[in-house]
Write a structure and sequence with these properties.
Order of helices and strands: HHHHEEHHHHHH
Largest sheet: 2 strands, antiparallel
Helix content: 40-55%
Strand content: under 5%
Distance between the termini: 102 Å
Radius of gyration: 27 Å
Strand order of the largest sheet: 1-2
Number of strands: 2
Structural class: mainly alpha
Number of helices: 10
């Protein structure tokens, strides 16, 4: 029976697999694993191996084989499938020919979803007004209420390495009111803002302050926002106290 794949074709396939795995796993653990499997196969067995569902799987090991985002991007570059691209930003700048400025390379996700009217309005819209807020939890209420951000969204951003997006959505665009006021002031003055333009204080969070009150009421100390067993307010006033001898 003639081989279903030539030795040259098999060599090209194996080389592509090993290069891709090694880009995400510099220790070669994954590529060595498949080298041992393929070494025992003839050409026909090698061909039929890829008729399986998901024949090539990346094997993780906690604290040992955990690819970083840049390594995953490099692995997809080996396949010729880049995960990041530059985005045109005509709202920021256009030259005389109408060509817009481009962003740094970032991950772009295309979602082809037919949305229902209720989902668009109630389930997945971003709040346009933030005036009506529950100052116990920091969450928006009434008609200002928008889509909630849960642990699943944060886990997804963590998996994609979107650390700055996590900081922005869970702090300054959540319930860090002092930082939000500073951010809006910068936007009004400059037209745009960067996360490097302002600082988010440790105690600048409605939810963290509420939780801290409950912990104090339960006689539980935490370093959530407290400083040396004192609330930020007490710690700030202590620096203003005048000692008399």
């Amino acid at each position: 029976m003639a081989d279903l794949i030539t030795p040259k074709q098999r060599e090209e396939v194996e080389l592509l697999i090993y290069k891709t795995l090694d880009a995400a796993d510099p220790d070669h653990t994954n590529s060595d694993y498949y080298r041992q499997i393929f070494y025992k196969m003839n050409n026909n067995e090698f061909y039929h191996f890829f008729e399986r569902r998901l024949p090539i799987r990346f094997h993780y090991e906690i604290f040992k084989i955990e690819p970083k985002m840049e390594q995953i991007i490099d692995a997809f570059k080996v396949l010729g499938k880049p995960l990041t691209e530059k985005v045109n930003m005509p709202h920021i700048y256009k030259n005389a020919e109408g060509k817009p400025v481009q962003s740094q390379e970032c991950m772009v996700i295309y979602l082809h979803i037919k949305r229902m009217q209720q989902m668009v309005y109630k389930k997945s819209h971003v709040a346009l007004n933030i005036d009506k807020r529950d100052y116990k939890t920091g969450m928006l209420t009434a008609e200002d209420k928008g889509a909630k951000q849960t642990d699943r969204e944060l886990e997804a951003m963590a998996a994609y390495g979107l650390d700055y997006s996590m900081d922005e959505l869970s702090r300054v665009r959540a319930d860090s009111m002092k930082a939000a006021a500073e951010m809006n002031s910068i936007i009004s003055a400059k037209g745009s803002v960067s996360m490097n333009d302002f600082n988010v204080g440790k105690a600048d969070s409605i939810a963290k302050n509420t939780l801290n009150v409950y912990l104090i009421g339960s006689n539980i100390y935490s370093n959530l926002i407290d400083i040396n067993y004192m609330t930020p307010h007490t710690a700030a006033n202590k620096n203003k106290m005048i000692s008399r001898t």
